Structures are given as C-alpha cells and as structure tokens.
C-alpha cells in the first residue's frame, strides 16, 4: 500500500463540475492499493498518516516538524489513486498489474477510510469518489517569514516550500531485481521471496 501525502491549507475534489469534498488546513492523501495488501498494510499506513509530524509546532511556528495532523486538529482528504502502483521500468507504457482489481480495491479502500476515521475523527476524514474521473485542487501550505531588518538594512527571507511525502506500508519489489550469478543469462526476472512460510520447501 502506498500513500502520497501533501500538507495543504485547503484541498477539494470535483466530479462533473460539482465539488463533492473539500477540506481546510490538513493533509491531501493519494492512496494506492496493491494486489497483496492486507489489514496489516492498512494499519501501518493509517498510523503513519495520522502521526507523521509534517506541521510546525502550534505554539511556536519557528519549530518545524513538530506536529501531526491530529495535533493541529486538521482535516484529511483522501483520493484513491491506483496509478501509484505503476511499474515504469520497462518501456514507456505504465504497467498497473500490481494494483488491486477495481472491486476488491473498492472494499479495501472503504476499510481504510473507516479505520482512519476510527483512529482519529470520522468528521475530519473526507474522500473523493472511487473510480470516478475527478479533478483535484489543492493549495500547498508554504511559509515565508521576514525577520526584522538588520542594522545594515538587509532583510533575510526564509521560505518553507510545499511539503510532500511518499509512505509505503512495507518494502515493495516494484523494480526488476538486478541480475545475479544464478539468473544472469535468464530473460525472466527472479520472483520475489514468498511471504507465506508454509509455501517454503521443507527439509526431509
């Protein structure tokens, strides 16, 4: 499971020229769900979204990376985005085989939204429309501070630009593995290790 989060001062989702969701200060979150994602991945992503410190201290704006979206009582706008799971290592056409199917993805995404609300506040969680053609608008929260001018009449301007992070629920094998001695001559990339211990061969 993959999420791209952006710190925003406002964000909205429009479908068929109608604004269906909007938030003020908080996080804009794009969510991609993989074919083998489980409840454990939802728990990991949910915890990280709610607790990652991407905001300044509410009591001291000069202290950066001190507060989470919960700390500032912010809102969260989520949009399902299967393209986050694209593999672009071969050719110029993105490969989306690692993205969960539409119907299963819809169920998993609904579960994710429910867990996010349970862990925070359901009224603070907004979302788009799964599978619809959406227009997403956002205003990045940036900070420009102008301290007092020095005696030499020089003014220092400090700029804190847009804040964007990518969060993965676990390590992904999205890129083909580099050739090793065992598969150097093979055209087929080696398969990633199985996550199911029961599938491993047993010693006689």
Q: How does this model look, in words?
A:
With 204 residues, the protein is of the alpha+beta class. The protein has one domain (2-178): D-tyrosyl-tRNA(Tyr) deacylase (D-tyrosyl-trna(Tyr) Deacylase, Chain: A, 3-Layer(bba) Sandwich). 15% of the residues lie in helices and 26% in strands. The protein is built from two helices and nine strands; from the N terminus they run E-E-E-H-E-H-E-E-E-E-E. The protein has helices at 39-51, 102-119; strands spanning 2-15, 18-23, 26-32, 75-80, 125-127, 135-140, 143-145, 158-160, 164-168. Strands 1, 2, 3, 4, 5, 6 and 9 form a seven-stranded mixed β-sheet that branches. The chain has a two-stranded antiparallel ribbon with strand order 7-8. Strand 1 and strand 2 form a beta hairpin. The longest helix has 18 residues, at 102-119. The model is unreliable at 148-153 and 174-204 (pLDDT under 50).
